[in-house]
Amino acid sequence: MSHSPRDAARYIKDFVLTSKTKTEYININGNKIPVYTNEFWTSKQRQASSIHEISYRACFKPQLPRFFINLLTQEGDIVYDPFSGRGTTAIEAGILGRNIVSNDINPLSRILTLPRFFVPNVIEVKERLENITYDTKLRADIDLSMFYHPKTEAEIVSLKNYLKQRESEKKEDIVDLWIRMVATNRLTGHSPGFFSVYTLPPNQAVTAERQQLINAKRNQKPEYRDTKKLIMKKTKSLIRNIKEQEILNLRKTGNSALFLSEDARRTPQIPNESVSLTVTSPPFLDVVQYDSDNWLRCWFNGIDAKKVANTITMSKNIQEWSCVMEEVFYELYRITKKGGWVAFEVGEVKGGKIKLDEYVVPLGQKAGFCCQGILINLQEFTKTSNIWGIGNNKSGTNTNRIVLFVKD
Ligand SMILES: C[S@@+](CC[C@H](N)C(=O)[O-])C[C@H]1O[C@@H](n2cnc3c(N)ncnc32)[C@H](O)[C@@H]1O
């Protein structure tokens, strides 16, 4: 759905008028920018599909991209996320029958996203797993004894070797990719549903030394975990509420999808003026220790975690962050269709002290976009806040701040 900026402004105004939205205005560099506050998407709305349930640092809820995809695009339009993470925007767009481009400089993003566009049959996954031979004497090339029972470790190494061989022989098919994705997700975690002894949640692998401390403190020793059984369990859980039509939509989208592992500032593979909507949330100022968070996931997939860590944008301050995002906006402007949209989500940084949205507005404008406003999604807006009390809203309420742009 493309709009000229004047239409777009009216369209958004009409939209906010039909909902009980609080509208305020802020002045940014002499421009009056509307700030709309509402519970635009709620946990009460249609539940998110179980297919999204892959953990990833700083991911957003599927309801956020769904809101913008439904509001601003039609079937067949291209939806893009330059900082795709676990692929929330891409998967939701696929479910809704849109085409997608998914980019993230972290190669784990593609490993965790692509297979869900080609949901395999449970029986195929079971049969494939049954045919993988586990060598119980195998050990990892690094000490993983603090995470895994020796038999579990042997299974993980066998699986790693099997996937590596399939890849090098160019035989890796969608069932293998699915197993790789699920196994990567199951490597470590805080429940018996994971391969490891109790540790931090799955997207935050701790160091070997730290795990030894956790084990000593909890007086725990890794118990055997049946990796094939756990992969089957997670497979069934991921597809437990997905509908046949959604699986078909995802496959159709997947067949023409573009998966990139580029710096979001330079994506020459994406043609000029091809994207109808971008929904994204960038890396924030908070320093996420990429290599320590992902070393085990990278080890399993034969990825050099240190090398990847060096390419991830980790800005020390707002000036550095703005310089990177300025270039991202120029690239988004190039690839966005006339009348196309960008929904740029920024969280509340440093407890709301830094309002990144107010930095983002001029960056988008400089690249040529027209800012349509800032949308603040307050969960349970109507219950927890009255129209005058939003400013006192306590933390604990999940707040998203989205800067919305349109291309003239
Ligand atoms: C806040 S997360 C996005 C999460 C995503 N919305 C989701 O739901 O999973 C930011 C992502 O940006 C990626 N990233 C960091 N610097 C990048 C860059 N320069 N270019 C492309 N991706 C980058 C990180 O790897 C991370 O996955």
TrEMBL record:
SUPFAM superfamilies (UniProt xref): S-adenosyl-L-methionine-dependent methyltransferases
GO molecular function: DNA binding; N-methyltransferase activity; site-specific DNA-methyltransferase (cytosine-N4-specific) activity
Its EC number(s): 2.1.1.113
Highest taxon of the lineage: Bacteria
Keywords: DNA-binding, Methyltransferase, Restriction system, S-adenosyl-L-methionine, Transferase
Catalysed reactions, as listed in the record: a 2'-deoxycytidine in DNA + S-adenosyl-L-methionine = an N(4)-methyl-2'-deoxycytidine in DNA + S-adenosyl-L-homocysteine + H(+)
Cell membrane keyword on record: no
Family stated for the protein in its record: Belongs to the N(4)/N(6)-methyltransferase family. N(4) subfamily.
Protein name from the UniProt record: site-specific DNA-methyltransferase (cytosine-N(4)-specific)
